Amino acid sequence: MKTLKVALLGCGNVGAQVARILLEDASVLADRAGAKLELTGIAVRNVATQRDGQIPAELFTTDSAALVDDADIVIELLGGLEPAGELIGRALSRGASVITGNKALLAARGAELSALAFANDAQLRYEAAVAGAIPILRPISDSLSGDRITKVMGIVNGTTNFILDAMDTTGAQFDDVLAEAQALGYAEADPTADVEGHDAAAKAAILASLAFHTDFALENVYCEGISKITAGDVAAAKDAGMVIKLLAIAERGENGIGVRVHPTLLPRTHPLAAVHGAFNAVFVEAENAGELMFYGRGAGGSPTASAVLGDTVAVARRVVSGGPLPAIATQQSVQVMDFAQAATSYAIGLRVSDEPGVLASIASIFATNGVSIEALRQTVNRDSAPAVAELRIVTHRSTESALSATVAAVAELAAVQEVISVLRVEGN
Amino acid sequence: MKTLKVALLGCGNVGAQVARILLEDASVLADRAGAKLELTGIAVRNVATQRDGQIPAELFTTDSAALVDDADIVIELLGGLEPAGELIGRALSRGASVITGNKALLAARGAELSALAFANDAQLRYEAAVAGAIPILRPISDSLSGDRITKVMGIVNGTTNFILDAMDTTGAQFDDVLAEAQALGYAEADPTADVEGHDAAAKAAILASLAFHTDFALENVYCEGISKITAGDVAAAKDAGMVIKLLAIAERGENGIGVRVHPTLLPRTHPLAAVHGAFNAVFVEAENAGELMFYGRGAGGSPTASAVLGDTVAVARRVVSGGPLPAIATQQSVQVMDFAQAATSYAIGLRVSDEPGVLASIASIFATNGVSIEALRQTVNRDSAPAVAELRIVTHRSTESALSATVAAVAELAAVQEVISVLRVEGN
Ligand SMILES: NC(=O)c1ccc[n+]([C@@H]2O[C@H](COP(=O)([O-])OP(=O)(O)OC[C@H]3O[C@@H](n4cnc5c(N)ncnc54)[C@H](OP(=O)(O)O)[C@@H]3O)[C@@H](O)[C@H]2O)c1
Ligand SMILES: NC(=O)c1ccc[n+]([C@@H]2O[C@H](COP(=O)([O-])OP(=O)(O)OC[C@H]3O[C@@H](n4cnc5c(N)ncnc54)[C@H](OP(=O)(O)O)[C@@H]3O)[C@@H](O)[C@H]2O)c1
Fold first, then answer.
1. Looking at A151, A203, A238, A245, which residue is catalytic?
2. What is the interface pTM, i.e. ipTM, of the complex?
3. Which domains does chain A have, with CATH numbers?
4. In this predicted model, what pLDDT tens digit does every residue of B333-366 receive, in sequence order?
5. pTM to 2 decimals?
6. Where would one find the signal peptide in this protein (chains A, B) (predicted)?
7. In testing the pocket of ligand 1, which one of A68, A304, A311 has its CB within 8 Å of the most ligand atoms?
């Protein structure tokens, strides 16, 4: 049986588990891959760090370039743009294949690196980069290759799902739940990348590129995080039989491909509404297959390592036997949908003075802008003087541009005290 | 670009949709496959039947053998053991690759046909055979190839899920819901194969073989259908926060691999509990990945055709470029778990006379057999004379043999009027 040299870059949360499995399960992996996978070294920043005692100390090195130059397969689990990008480029240029979980790098340079892999007859796989353990990239690009995907909606960030789920369950405010999530290790000390949707946006760009056989640039992803979601928004959603989730949405419409990340109202009966805690799930709509959903752990050392090893076995099988490269994503040039043309329905919360004619003037602004109202609920608080009413409006499908013009005009009305929230609605 | 000759066997629910997509989407499929897929003919029983007018009449033939002998790729959608088995064998023996959705044939002869494919360097793929449109076989055998699957639990029969879901929603009896399902086309005139679990058992054998890299014979699948489930069982489950689903369960334990199909109580919070109507879903537990679930349409012409075409593109790519064959299932010999040793927890319903000491004698029989009681609820009906009580007992994990000995002994007690139901419980 052939032996393939495997270089591991990084021995953190994920890398340490990949090393453990490569060592512990060597014979099973060899059976499945058709080749022995020999771990030749592990690149880290600091060789002196005390680590899991099961990994032989002589494997650790800081000379990542030398490791890469001697490998058949490189597993990159450093994170960050550099030196990860340079090392992956170095490996692919030599014809070595690469497995990575680095969504930030892929969202920035995925098309370029895929092309480099293709040009060198090397493989580049990254199942772990989106939704951790969940097999989602291969099903999208392989299993659904005989179909046409029309829409992908994913809960792809565990931190924000944990926070929103806890807000839904406990009724607590965002800041309190975030602090709890940080204490439990579900959120980082600097939670910006998760909470503001940047992590989800990178994954959305990767999903869109594979689902629509194109190269969708990160800068074209509309991105809005969850830090402005209040306990009041969550309670109002609950009243309406809905739940708020941060979704990464990629869809193909008449005007091209639109990709957006934002807090979204979903009916509680939607399969994505049942995704709790830090779990992830990706909902896919395809012309023939209809609705599909893939559910599982989106992060964590061992779950993510499972996806990395699945890719490693696939890569090894092809290194041994040759055969077709995975389809390369950038087959079609992309027409990016102008975000102003994206269409969905909206839930709008307004605080208004409880005086005659307010409802009529609001409704007429909606009508003038061509935004049709599906449902409206008014709650009057007569204890405050003068009396105040809270309006919750749900619209039919309308474009972003029509909606924002409507909200801007409504906000100008003297009787409108506050626009409490504007949330997009899916699945209804 | 190379052209591959594709022979389609069958033009029924699924075959007609496969033909439509091959003709309508020819250029997209060619892009993805790296070869033109030329539909050379469609074998049917009766050429004269009036069919979808979009398919050129000259494609239809009754000479399936001639069609097979001229093809690079054969798509078998006839159903049944013969002539499907003979035609698949004929194709593989010539080195032509085969895509099929025929679970009955695969459960009976899958290992033999896989070996034949392997020996002839041909491919045999059958994603459509289990859970229709849901990509489940490739994720199990490819994406999870670097992991160890410990358990698979699937709702893999849409008819029975439709019936159980309707019983749960409406409180109606089995017979009434079955009649409605037949009227709506969700159940066949002869519903035996679905309702008695035979269809699910075939899929369970296929899932177990792939998940555990072995050849699990259909005759070793324990199979129990849903025809004895009453409205009372459904209501009692509801009271306990549970729902009844027909599950196909494959698990690896200390005593080997056990595969069983039976009605199962699941907590309403379990992801499988949210699978409604005729939808399917497969829940997978793996050592590193943890819990995963795959959800979608389990049947229907277009959804099933999506899976067939996904396989067809994969097969074509390898025919064009060579490369590794899909892993062959029978790598390890199988140790079949004796069903008597399978362990789960149980929910037992008993009708007993409301007299002193009954509970004590029942509890002592459980204790003697080593079956430990987790929960017990007694409802006394004093309107009947003499008074009657209904006991609902949930046990801790116990083996089938201990449980059946317990139930037999309990049934012997003079005070026990009826064993209302014995149901297995998962996910609690
Ligand atoms: N964690 C997850 O659940 C998860 C899930 C999906 C995808 N991912 C992705 O997987 C990748 C790794 O994540 P992680 O959580 O395992 O990261 P981590 O815990 O921060 O580990 C990073 C590792 O890389 C090493 N490293 C960093 N910079 C280096 C450099 N310049 N030269 C050599 N070694 C260097 C570190 O060495 P030292 O140990 O010496 O500091 C450490 O071992 C990231 O791209 C991440 O986005 C992670
Ligand atoms: N239906 C689903 O949703 C579904 C889902 C998953 C898997 N599957 C599997 O897919 C397969 C096909 O199912 P289906 O529902 O499409 O079946 P179907 O509607 O009964 O169609 C069967 C087709 O095969 C042809 N045929 C049958 N025996 C033949 C013979 N001896 N020679 C030539 N042609 C013959 C029939 O010809 P005529 O038209 O002339 O009668 C018909 O076109 C089965 O294995 C089934 O288990 C089906």
1. A203
2. 0.92
3. 3-130+301-321 (3.40.50.720), 137-297 (3.30.360.10), 342-425 (3.30.70.260)
4. 788 888 888 899 999 999 999 888 899 999 999 9
5. 0.94
6. none
7. A304
